[in-house]
Amino acid sequence: MVQPADVDFSLRATIVSMIGYILDIAGIDADSKGFGIKKLTRENRSWVVSRMALDFYRFPYKYETIHITTWVNDYGKLLTTRNFTMVDENYNSIFAAVTQWAMIDLFTRRPLDLRHVDEYSQHLCKEKSPIDNPHKIAAIIPQKTAIHKVTYSDIDFNRHVNSLRYITLMVDMLPIEFLSKPNSMHVEINFLHESRYGDILTIGYEQSNSKLQFEIKNVRNIAICRASIEWKTDTEWKNLG
């Protein structure tokens, strides 16, 4: 159920809240199958999300009940693909997503080879992904920038900036008029490098018609995260379907 803390002034769930739902569900599902954070932490390993592609068809209201389905249908040397769909009580589509994850060694901070772990292949589903896989997002020349110092509240259990925090920093760059219209949208996010406590980040974005692109860099000019948001009309969604 969508809780009051999950909505904004429109009384609809925010972008960050909806992505938070699927990250929570991913953790619950992985734990139930024996390769979640509960087990991996004891082995000094963890999952990190690498890329996301997300279609928001609408944003559910406060106290609305939603149903989320998740499944894994592919994994290779470095990345595994986890999918999501979200529907309302009448089984109308609200949201669909494809996410790609890497497993890292918490000591070296390097990705691990997933190909030789038998329990992953046992839980693969044949069901196709609901939308296309996320793409590589290009660098931008920002039209507007803001500075953020990484603090305690930005850090998660992996001791780096939480993926939802990057999304919050980017969304907070937007004029409130962009966020007051509950239009459907397509979002893609590339998580490129880690940020740690005390890092100074520059958040920038550029706009081209109905598409916005974001980039977060550190003081060494290394891109930490890139994202794009493209608003879709109802006609465009029908054409895509």
What would you give as the CATH superfamily of the largest domain?
Hotdog Thioesterase
Which structural category do the helix and sheet elements fall into? alpha+beta
CATH class descriptor of the largest domain:
Alpha Beta
Count of the domains = 2
Number of strands: 9
Low-confidence stretches are 237-241
Strand order of the largest sheet: 2-3-4-1-6-9-8-7-5
Our Rg estimate from Cα atoms comes to: 18 Å
What's the helix count?
6
Measured as a percent range, the helix fraction is 10-25%
Q: What is the end-to-end distance?
A: 28 Å
Q: In the CATH hierarchy, what is the architecture of the largest domain at level 2?
A: Roll
Shape: globular
What letter string, H or E per element, gives the SSE order? HHEEEEHEHHEEEEH
Question: How would you portray this structure in words?
Answer:
- The protein is of the alpha+beta class and 241 residues long.
- It has two domains: 1-134, Thiol Ester Dehydrase, Chain A (Roll), CATH 3.10.129; 135-241, Hotdog Thioesterase (Thiol Ester Dehydrase, Chain A, Roll), CATH 3.10.129.
- 20% of the residues lie in helices and 34% in strands.
- The chain has six helices and nine strands, in the order ααββββαβααββββα.
- The chain has helices at residues 15-32, 37-42, 118-122, 163-171, 176-179, 234-240, and strands at 45-56, 67-75, 80-87, 93-105, 144-149, 185-191, 200-208, 211-218, 223-231.
- Strands 2-3-4-1-6-9-8-7-5 form a nine-stranded antiparallel beta sheet.
- Helix 1 packs antiparallel against helix 4.
